[in-house]
Write a structure and sequence with these properties.
The chain has about 80 residues and is mostly helical. The chain contains 3 helices and no strands. It has one domain. Helix 1 packs antiparallel against helix 2 and helix 2 packs antiparallel against helix 3. The longest helix is centred in the C-terminal third of the chain and has 23 residues.
């Protein structure tokens, strides 16, 4: 995944302990947050309001969140 979808700088980047993904995991909110973000990005891509490049970017973000949720569920 590109930097834009994996630890984006505008969310603090990989070094930030307050990055959204890290906070959700620490507070045990990851299931809801990851699935919410997945559906949010799918809906944005499906709306057709953005250019195709942006739609593809949104689908990749949704894929990232879905993969993170699958990994969370597979990890004991």
């Amino acid at each position: 995944m590109t930097e834009r979808g994996d630890h984006p700088a505008h969310y603090g980047g990989a070094e930030s302990r307050y990055e959204h993904v890290k906070v959700c995991r620490a507070w045990k909110l990851d299931q809801l947050a990851f699935l919410y973000n997945c559906t949010k990005y799918i809906c944005r891509a499906a709306s057709g309001k953005h250019k195709k490049v942006k739609q593809l970017e949104d689908l990749k973000k949704a894929q990232w969140y879905l993969s993170a949720e699958i990994e969370r569920r597979e990890t004991p």
